[in-house]
Amino acid sequence: MDTWILQMCRAKYRNQVIAWGLTAALGVAIAFVNTRYIANFLRGPFDVGAAELAQLGDVTTAPHYFVKVAGTKALATGLQEVSVETESGVEKSRTVTANYYALEVGNRLLVVKSTGGTMRVAAGALAAMSPDLESNLFASPEMQSARSHFYPFYLDAASSFRAGGYWGIGIGIALLSLLGWKARPAWHGLQDASSHPLAARVGKWGSAVDTSAAIEREWRPGQPAHGQMDHHATLSRAVGAVPLQRTAGRGSAVGV
Fold first, then answer.
1. Looking at residue 155, what is its pLDDT?
2. What's the confidence (pLDDT) of residue 68?
3. pTM for this entry
4. Maximal CA-CA distance, the chain
5. How do beta strands 90-105 and 66-70 pair?
6. What is the DSSP string of 59-121?
7. For residues 79 and 137, what is the distance between their CA atoms, to the nearest angstrom?
8. Are the C-beta atoms of 95 and 82 separated by less than 8 Å?
9. Residue 83 confidence (pLDDT)
10. pLDDT at 146 (0 to 100)
11. What are phi and psi of 127, to 5 degrees?
12. How far apart are the first and last CA of the chain?
């Protein structure tokens, strides 16, 4: 018979299954949104040349943006990315965090951001030039006149493209472990609420129907033992009524 105790246990398991189901759905949604990155993470870097770069439109939507480019000549631009450390508004130190150079690919120049020196082969993610980068790179009249010879995007070889993916893999493994540890028992408990430790404990005290009715009367005083169940109640409240003791002369249990 479906007793009040079993209904409470089943409600607890149902809430757990819904919570873990939503967590899993969120993980799948995040992976779906990042399918472009995942494809490049797994299959890149893609070897590209002048022909492929010339056909690229918007690099933010290009299917292959984690690339490896080989040029014929590397030219220094003199542009650097500098990190400034200040204390109370006073500059303490400066550190060069990246250099920008131009890589000749075909008859155009590809700007490359790098933490090392100028190299004729570079790998990284293609990205759109920020307004700040454009204003600094093409600040002089000479660079302004040569702007048409540059690709409208740059190659970020200074950042680790796969770092975010490795973090995602770690989080995914942790999530799957939690699903196996917590969600599976909740699903099995939803199918068989009598497996809950509280239900099994109550079952040892005699008639499960009488014991459950007595607990329900103690939990909801002034209401019939077999009245309609408040589905918003939680098992944690019922557990808060323990310890439970067998009443003298009866096979039921009441809260102390």
1. 94
2. 95
3. 0.65
4. 102
5. unpaired
6. TTT-S--EEEEE-SEEEEEEEEEEEEEEETTEEEEEEEEEEEEEEEETTEEEEEEESS---SE
7. 7
8. yes
9. 83
10. 86
11. -140, 155
12. 26
Parts of the chain with a pLDDT under 50: 206-208, 210, 225-256
CB 183 within 8 A of CB 20: yes
Q: What is the pLDDT of residues 171-230, one digit of tens each?
A: 989 888 888 887 777 777 666 655 555 555 555 554 445 455 555 555 565 555 444 444
Tokens for 201? 């404990």
Please tell me the distance from the alpha carbon of residue 202 to that of residue 187, in angstroms, as a whole number.
Answer: 21
User: Closest Cα partner for 136 from 148, 147, 151?
Assistant: 147
| Residue at token pair 């570079």 | 122
Amino acid letter, 47: D
User: What six digits make up the tokens of 138?
Assistant: 């093409």
- What's the rounded Cα separation, in Å, for the pair 158 and 79? 14
